[in-house]
Amino acid sequence: MRLSLAPLCLALVLAGCQREAVRADAPTADTPVAAPAPAATVPADDNLNAVLWMQTAVEYRANSLQTYRAAIAQLDRALKDKSWDALDPVERGNPARGLPPAVIFDVDETVLDNSPYQARLVQSGGEYNEALWAAWVNERKATAIPGVLEFAKAAQARGVELFFISNRAVDLKPATIDNLRSVGLNVKDDAFLGLGTVVPECEQDGSDKNCRRQLIGRKYRVLMQFGDQLGDFVQVAPNTPGNRDAIYDAHRDWFGQRWWVLSNPSYGSWEPALFDNNYRAPRDARRAAKREALRVAH
Ligand SMILES: [Mg+2]
To answer: What is the rounded average pLDDT of the residues 238-251?
Structure first.
């Protein structure tokens, strides 16, 4: 009886139900009010699982850690072998032999963890937004990807220079260097080559990193490259599934030797390759193209 009366009294209290409301077994002002019924649906977002995996799964952390640890184990071999160079021959315009050693890192999801920014997009239901991205970068709150600090320390202890080629815009350089240093990396002022870096005698196409890689290659033998996207290692043109497969096949021997790939299921050039790189297409159309790419059998 109480269960049936309580909601009735709450509903009618302003309509003269006070007499019922003072019954000993009736709800009082101290009785907790039931929480509102949950929304019928939880907003869906294609990035929910990917961001949660990167933020909460020990498997993700272990994967990054083992990548950098395996790279440390290859460092001495790479230093000793004077023919060892991690630039694709197409991008190597000068002999590497005899040059001082360096390694090249991408920044985002290779060295710095920006998953809180991705998490904000999932919560808001938004997509990449330049202003929100710049605001996040300027917070300087990204943390280090597991293992990178140990690798950087091991490389620098062997006299290897560190360079960071990023598609963060050059105007985000101060915040980026601050953030890299705040996580414990020993970064020189000229070690960051952001989007917009001018490279003499090299024509850079959009956000491609090939000219910046060449710039470093002119003065250094590149022992290793680290990235979370294929374009961090070599120019990918066109960004199609077929060309990406071909680059993978051509460089199979370099992965885990000269090229080291960090996991990033949250975003990256693999995704637009599935919808003709057309971000102007409506979100549903892009999602439909991705569903079309699912393989339900081998
Ligand atoms: Mg990246």
So the answer is: 98
Domain 48-224: state its class: alpha beta
The CA 156 to ligand 1 mean position distance, Å, reads: 22
Q: Could you tell me the residue ranges of all domains in the chain?
A: 48-224
CA of 109 from ligand 1 middle (Å) equals 5
Distance of CA 39 from the midpoint of ligand 1 (Å):
36
* Reported pTM: 0.86
For 253-273, what is each residue's pLDDT tens digit?
999 999 999 999 999 999 999
CA of 218 to the centre of ligand 1 (A): 23
pLDDT of residue 34: 65
Q: How far is the CA of 230 from the centre of ligand 1 (A)?
A: 10
Q: How far is the CA of 151 from the centre of ligand 1 (A)?
A: 17
CA terminus-to-terminus distance, the chain: 61
